[in-house]
């Protein structure tokens, strides 16, 4: 374990000229939130209708899935995944706990359904050809630190990075990239505002999946951390700090919004949706809210 802890994160080994070279001006951040991020899917579908794009995007968990469909130009794709496919037992169910050893089957979602021969494939050639870049956020299962991955790490029918970023503790197991395990990116960097600024963003659209006046509490995170501590002590420590990190980043985003540098898009209500709540009517309401809020982006970017 000591050797693994001291090993450099493979996502961080060498500085990438993309991080320090050409300027990046506009950015969209989607923080995820499980099925609640159908709100973000609505935002992106409106942006596609309006032909709006960005220099780069940063996606966590479901936010990475939303961004991949956005770069592919596949309007409506994520709506089907959130609202329709989520009802299937293969997607998430108690049966999966016994068959797959996890409630949520990320392999079903991002391989069986998303590969070239899947029911609703991701258009990877379109993603690859899109000049917009995007960063996927994951949490290293050994170090508990965030790891950031560029679009060029993806390959056709290899969406392991999205699985890593979506790997909620207890709902599923960590997933591997280059031999290392990763959990949901929202554990280590729940609102990657500092990363966007570090990459040169001057105008940032921040997509949340809870109302903007909501602040996280650490009650559940501490409970999960206690259960994780023996096997993943650094991830447990990151979980204990997640609420504080989220709230601090949100406060900074609110300050930057006052300065005209950030636009926060957030649902007026979370519709009572938890991370894995799959009520079709409430999900549709969240999506519709996102569709409407997407119309706020053009004016923000042009001013």
TrEMBL record:
Matches recorded under SUPFAM superfamilies: FabD/lysophospholipase-like (SSF52151)
Molecular functions per Gene Ontology: hydrolase activity
Keywords: Hydrolase, Lipid degradation, Lipid metabolism
Protein name: PNPLA domain-containing protein
Protein origin, superkingdom: Bacteria
One Pfam short name: Patatin
Record-level GO BP terms: lipid catabolic process
């Amino acid at each position: 374990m000591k050797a693994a802890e001291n090993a450099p994160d493979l996502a961080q080994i060498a500085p990438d000229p993309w991080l320090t070279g050409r300027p990046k001006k506009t950015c969209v951040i989607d923080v995820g939130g499980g099925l609640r991020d159908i709100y973000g899917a609505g935002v992106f579908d409106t942006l596609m209708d309006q032909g709006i794009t960005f220099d780069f995007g940063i996606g966590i968990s479901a936010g990475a899935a939303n961004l991949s469909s956005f770069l592919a130009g596949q309007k409506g794709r994520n709506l089907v995944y959130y609202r329709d496919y989520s009802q299937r037992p293969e997607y998430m169910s108690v049966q999966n706990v016994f068959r797959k050893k996890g409630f949520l089957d990320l392999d079903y979602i991002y391989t069986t359904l998303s590969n070239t021969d899947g029911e609703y494939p991701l258009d990877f050639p379109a993603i690859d050809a899109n000049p917009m870049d995007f960063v996927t956020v994951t949490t290293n299962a050994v170090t508990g630190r965030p790891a950031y991955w560029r679009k060029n790490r993806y390959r056709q029918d290899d969406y392991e990075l999205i699985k890593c970023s979506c790997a909620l503790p207890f709902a599923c197991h960590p997933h591997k990239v280059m031999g290392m395990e990763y959990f949901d990116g929202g554990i280590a960097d729940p609102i990657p505002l500092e990363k966007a600024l570090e990459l040169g963003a001057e105008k940032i659209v921040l997509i949340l999946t809870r109302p903007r006046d909501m602040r996280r509490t650490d009650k559940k995170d501490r409970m999960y951390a206690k259960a994780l501590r023996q096997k993943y002590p650094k991830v447990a420590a990151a979980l204990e700090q997640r609420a504080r990190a989220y709230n601090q980043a949100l406060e900074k985003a609110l300050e930057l919004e006052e300065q005209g540098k950030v636009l926060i898009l957030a649902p007026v209500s979370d519709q009572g949706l938890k991370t894995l709540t799959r009520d079709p009517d409430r999900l549709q309401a969240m999506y519709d809210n996102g569709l409407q809020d997407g119309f706020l982006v053009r004016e923000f970017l042009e001013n």
